[in-house]
Amino acid sequence: MNLQNLWKEYSKVIIKTGVNLQENQILVVQAPIESREFVHVISETAYEMGAKEVIIRWSDEILIKQKFKYCSIETLQEIPQHFIDFYIDYKNKKAAFLSLVGEDPELLKKVDPKKIKSSIEAKSIALKEYYQSLMGDEISWNVAAVSIPSWAKAVFPELDEKEAQYRLWKEILDASRIEEENSVELWKTHIQNLKDHADYLNAMEFKRFHYTNKQGTDLTIDFPEGHIWRAGYGITKDGIEFVANIPTEEVYTLPHKKGINGIVYSSKPFNYAGNIIDEFYLKIKDGKIVEAKAKKGEEILNQLIHTDKGSMYFGEVALVPFDSPISNRNLLFYNTLFDENASCHLAIGKAYPTCLKDSEDKTVEELEELGVNDSIVHEDFMIGTKDLNIDGIRKNGEIIPVFRNGNWA
After folding, report:
1. For residues 390 and 398, what is the distance between their CA atoms, to the nearest angstrom?
2. Most buried residue among 131, 311, 315, 363 by CB atoms closer than 10 A?
3. 13-50 pLDDT, tens digit each
4. DSSP string, 74-93
5. Per-residue pLDDT tens for 321-342?
6. 227 to each of 208, 253, 316, how far by Cα in Å?
7. Residues 318, 326, 165, 184, Cα dihedral to 10°
C-alpha cells in the first residue's frame, strides 16, 4: 500500500466530495496533532483546489486528559469568548469546516462523568449558533478519520504501535472507498446509489416503522408529516452539495419526537466523550427514554440522556444494511463515524430540521410543534443486527418489508 498516494486521493475526496470546497473559500480544519503529516496533504490539496486560506486548529490528547484531571467543574464550564468568536466569525465568512477525527476511545475513562457532562454542556450551549448552522446545512462541513497511535492500539492491541497505526490507516482508506485513482468518481456513483434508496423511501411515504430482532428489540417509530429521507449528502442554502461523513453508507430521516415506543438494544459498543458504553438497552414511551441500563458505562449513558430536555428524545433514524463494506470487515472501530456506517442506528438528541419539508424559516418552537426534537446533543448509537427486520407501515395501513435479516428487503 502506497500510503502517500492514497493520502492524496483521500484528501481529494474529502475536499472535493466532502466539504466541496469552492474557489476562494476558507477551509477550517480541526485535527489531532498526531495527524500532522496528513494535515499537510489536506492543506496542499485545498490550496490546489482554490482555497483562499486553510486554518488549522489542533487538539492534543495529553493536554485534554490533563485538563479534565486537574481543572474544576467550574473551570471546565468557562468557555472563553474568543473561542466562540472563532467559530461564529468563520461561519459568517461561509468557510467550509472539516473535522478530522481520531482518538483513544477510552481517553476520559477515569474522569468524573459530571466533569464530562458539564464540559460538553457548556461548549454545546456556547456554540449553539455554530452547531445549528451545521445541522441546518447553512455551511458545508465534513467529518473524516485519521489514524493516530492511541486509537490504532485500541483497535489492534495485538500489533505494535507502528504496525497498528499503518493497519488502521489501511482500514480507514478501504472503508472510505479510496483507491489509487478516480476515487472522486467512485464516490459520485456511491452517493447516487444511496440517493436511489432515499428516493424509494420518500415515494412510499411511510407513516411508521416496526423494528424486531432476536436480541429483544421491539420498537415502533412514527414519522412526522412531510419527513424527508436523505442519503448522506446535504445542500447548503447557496446550492453547494456536500457529503458530511466519509465514509457514509446510510439513508436517514427524523422520527416524530413523541412517536417512538418500545425497547431497543444496542448492537455495538458506543464511544461517547472518551468512554465506552456497551451492552445497553433503552425503554421508550411516547418518544421519551424512561429507562436506560448498560453493562458498561451506564453512568455516562445516563449523563448523556439527562443533558437537557431534548436529550431524553431522539433526532435521527438511519438505515444501513448489515451486508455493507464496513460491516463486512468484521472489525470494531470504537469510533461512531465507522461503527454507525456498519449498522442501522438511532441518534439521541437533536433532529436535522433539513429532514422536514418547508422547515427553513420555522422557529425551534414551530418545528417542535411538528414533531422535530431539539437538543444541544446529537449522538448516534448502533442497533442493527444480522437478523433485524423492519416493516414499513403506509398511511393506508399497508405493511411493506423494508429490511429482512439485516439488509434491504
Report:
1. 14
2. 315
3. 999 999 999 999 999 999 999 999 999 999 999 999 99
4. HHHT---HHHHHHHHHHHHT
5. 998 888 888 899 999 999 989 9
6. 11, 7, 11
7. -90
